[in-house]
Design brief:
Elements lengths: L6 E5 L5 H13 L4 E5 L13 H10 L6 E3 L1 H5 L5 E3 L8 H5 L3 H9 L1 H27 L8 H5 L1
Parallel strand pairs: 1-2
Antiparallel strand pairs: 1-3, 3-4
């Protein structure tokens, strides 16, 4: 996104399949490079693979994984190119991480450290959501970029 001319999307099919589809269609239609960052669960995470798609929803609902689309073509139209498709988190990051053995193991082996790390992870997720929310609320430029006008 910092380059300003690359389509970027973050998706989680289990959280919002229509968002995933829309992101792929926009990326394909974009006349330039596109990057889609997709949440991909894995059996090594220590999850029940039959519920893996609903785990993705909890990751998004907790703010641990954000859904967004950055489309440079919107900037050329004077709009903010970043669209945050995630809602304000409604769950704790711990709700998500507790679903995975790789994180849950720490609560058994080092409970005090786990408590501190849960709090830090929650703080990081909340801070990241507020940053993306702030960037997505910014108004677009009133006029398209000069180089875009001349084309």
């Amino acid at each position: 996104m910092s380059y300003g001319n690359i389509y970027v999307a973050s998706v989680a099919m289990g959280a919002k399949d229509e968002h995933t589809l829309k992101s792929f269609l926009e990326a394909e239609a974009y006349n330039g490079p596109s990057l889609i960052i997709a949440y991909s669960h894995c059996i090594a995470h220590g999850i029940n693979m039959t519920t893996a798609m609903s785990n993705q929803k909890v990751a998004v609902d907790s703010g641990q994984w954000l859904l967004y689309r950055y489309n440079p073509e919107r900037a050329a139209q004077g709009e903010n190119p970043l669209i945050l498709d995630s809602r304000t988190p409604t769950r704790k990051v711990q709700d998500f991480m507790s679903m995975e053995t790789r994180f849950k193991m720490l609560t058994k082996s080092r409970p005090e450290d786990a408590k501190q790390l849960w709090a830090e992870a929650q703080h990081d997720a909340s801070t990241r959501f507020r940053l993306y929310e702030y960037m997505a609320q910014r108004k677009g430029d009133k006029e398209p970029a000069k180089e875009q006008k001349e084309q």
